[in-house]
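INTERNAL AUDIT FORM
Audit reference: QA-55
Scope: verify that the stored structure record matches its stored sequence.
Auditor: D.O.
Record contents follow.
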Amino acid sequence: MGFVSQLFYPWGFILQILALVHFFRRRGEWYWVWIILIGGAIGAVVYIVAEVLPDAGLIRAMFQSHGRKTRIQLVEAMIVDNPSIANLEELGELYWDEKQYAKSRQAFDLAITSKSDSPRTFYRCGQCALELGDPAAAIPDLEVAYRGDPKMDFCRPGMFLAQAYAATGRTEEAATLFEEVAKHNITPEILYNYAVFLKSQNRRDESLEWLQRLFEKKRTLPHYMQRIERPWFAKGKVLLKELTAVKPSSEQK
């Protein structure tokens, strides 16, 4: 292996550095560090093929963002003469994709004021309120979205509504809703957030149980989906450490 690395010197060394930089920025599985270090140039190439090339989609996202900004300017100009519900909803979605939540919320609010009855519009408006740290304001919109289409976006309206209930002290309603959502969909995001909620209610064993389901979910997902859902698995590991660092009250006595 060392002989092969020498053949590519100094390019093999450069590839290792690039692979390690990418790894520590993305925080992947730690076994990749050993593959990169011990495997030399070949290990770095294996990592780049498996982990770096799929991230080329990020470059595509940059071009999409540029196109959205152009479209935002166009739709803003259209709304001056034609503030229709469709135009307001499109502008809200464009702002949402750009993470401009205050402007997105304003556009969706205007669409709702103009008598929009789309569950997605209320859903996005509620999401914006949550992103802006206003769970109380999010509740009415998310309730409309949940009643209108509870299975929209992989059952996320119910999950966000449960989080808003919990954030405003309505924990019993949050618990009931989380249980209902978990019956219909168990995406990594829902599994993690339910475990977080259970921890906040001092239901440690139940939180650990749902975290276990999260990690079992990882083993059953195809590799490309594991990459997409990686943030939730990483957060799950952090939560697991927090839960196992604190002994149950019965053991502390």
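Auditor finding: record pair retrieved intact. Residues 186-244 form one domain.
Action required: none
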